[in-house]
Amino acid sequence: xxxxxxxxxxxxxxxxxxxxxxFTVPSKAIINGVIEGDLTAEEVLxxxxxxxxxxxxxxxxxxxxxxxxxxxxxKSLIVRATGKIxxxxxxxxxxxxxGGEIEGTLSQNADGPAIKVGTLPAA
Length: 123
Known about the structure:
Helix content is 4%, strand content 64%. The chain has 1 helix and 10 strands, in the order H-E-E-E-E-E-E-E-E-E-E.
C-alpha cells in the first residue's frame, strides 16, 4: 500500500474465507478467498486461490484465480497464466498471459463489438 488512507479504503479477503453479498470498496480489493456476490472497487486483484462468482466492476482487474459472471473493467483487464474467466467481459484494454483462460463474450468498451471466445472455428 502506498499510504495509510489507501489501506483504510482497501479490503483483503484471505485464503479460506468465504463471504456473500454486495461489496463496494473505495480503493483496492485483494481476493485470495471466495466472494459469492457483487464487487465494485477501484482496483481488484484476484490471487491464485481467489474466486469471485458475481458481477465485478473496477478500473483495473488483475486475475490470477477465477472470475465468473459479468466483468466490467473500465481501464485494463489482465488475465495471468493461472487466471480463468467465464462470463460476459467488458474492457478497455486486455492482456492475457500464456495459459490464461477466457470463455464467454468479450466486448471492448460499452459500444465495441462483442467477440465470442471459447469455441473458435477450425482453420
